[in-house]
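Exercise 7b. Backbone tokens:
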């Protein structure tokens, strides 16, 4: 019995080291994927980018026309980097709705003037309510929403040139 008490701590240490070694050899997934894929877009009604702009609501995503929902912010450097790719998607006819997270109307207007405005509408999400509801873990993120208002695809991070065709294909597939 005394011998068991000497072996047990050693066996537990070996087990712990084995588990730790196994976990360290596994590839790391740096992205938090949304659990909302395949589910309806949560109901929302947000103010427009400026006080004069119309409100943006979830109802506009259920009109039979698929859209991209781009979650971004003026203070986000990768959002600046993805601006040309968003313009390219808009030029290809992809309707994009932007949601600016924790931003001021003046900053949003200046950002769009400086980097281009690919959006058919822009909303302000002052407390990141919609961002959290769709399962977005950061900015920028882009979601493909089908014409019935169902989230079909999530692109995490900024859209790079190499992502444009794939995102366009996802949008086309949502039609």
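Sequence design result:
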């Amino acid at each position: 019995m005394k011998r068991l008490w000497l072996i047990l701590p050693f066996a537990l240490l070996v087990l712990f080291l084995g588990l730790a070694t196994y976990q360290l050899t596994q590839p790391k997934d740096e992205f938090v994927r949304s659990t909302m894929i395949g589910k309806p877009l949560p109901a929302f009604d947000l103010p427009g980018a400026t006080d004069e702009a119309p409100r943006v609501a979830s109802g506009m995503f259920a009109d039979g026309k698929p859209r991209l929902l781009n979650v971004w912010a003026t203070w986000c450097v990768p959002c600046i980097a993805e601006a040309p790719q968003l313009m390219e998607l808009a030029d290809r006819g992809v309707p994009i709705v932007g949601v600016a997270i924790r931003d001021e109307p003046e900053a949003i207007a200046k950002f769009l003037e400086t980097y281009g405005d690919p959006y058919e509408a822009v909303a302000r999400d002052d407390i990141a309510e919609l961002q959290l509801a769709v399962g977005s873990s950061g900015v920028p993120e882009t979601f493909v929403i089908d014409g019935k208002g169902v989230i079909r695809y999530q692109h995490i991070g900024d859209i790079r040139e190499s992502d444009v065709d794939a995102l366009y294909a996802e949008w086309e597939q949502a039609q």
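Instructor comment: Strands lie at 45-46, 56-57, 67-72, 96-101, 121-125, 141-145, 151-156. Residues 45-173 form a domain with the Glutaredoxin fold (CATH 3.40.30.10).
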